[in-house]
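Protocol step 4 of 6: structure prediction from sequence.
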Amino acid sequence: MSTVELTKENFDQVVSDNEFVLIDFWASWCGPCRQFAPVYDSASERHKDLVFAKVDTEAQQELAAAFEIRSIPTLMIVRDNVAVFSQPGALPEATLEDVIGQARKLDMDEVRKSIEAEQKGGPEGQQ
């Protein structure tokens, strides 16, 4: 599958319609982003069952701000509408493969339970 260009207009639909989405936040002027691009593209060829998407942080500043992207490239993985991974920096191919493998193995029911527990133990009641 070719890489999908994400915009604020199509972001929610792409993420909602697909259970596993990798998102590369990048910019054309960014050297590390250009270095990471072929690694990311090559992974998209190997993992045709996953959606590989890109957000041009220059063209989509609102989207980058919504995700508090401070450094590019930043790779984010969203499974079942939950961001399960987010890390800045150009990942080497072996590391990207490892991250994809770990994200595939996640038990999303456990992830959701963990998020719920974290939210319940959050700032409510603490004043």
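Step 5 (inspection) to follow. The helical segments are 11-17, 31-46, 61-66, 93-105, 108-120.
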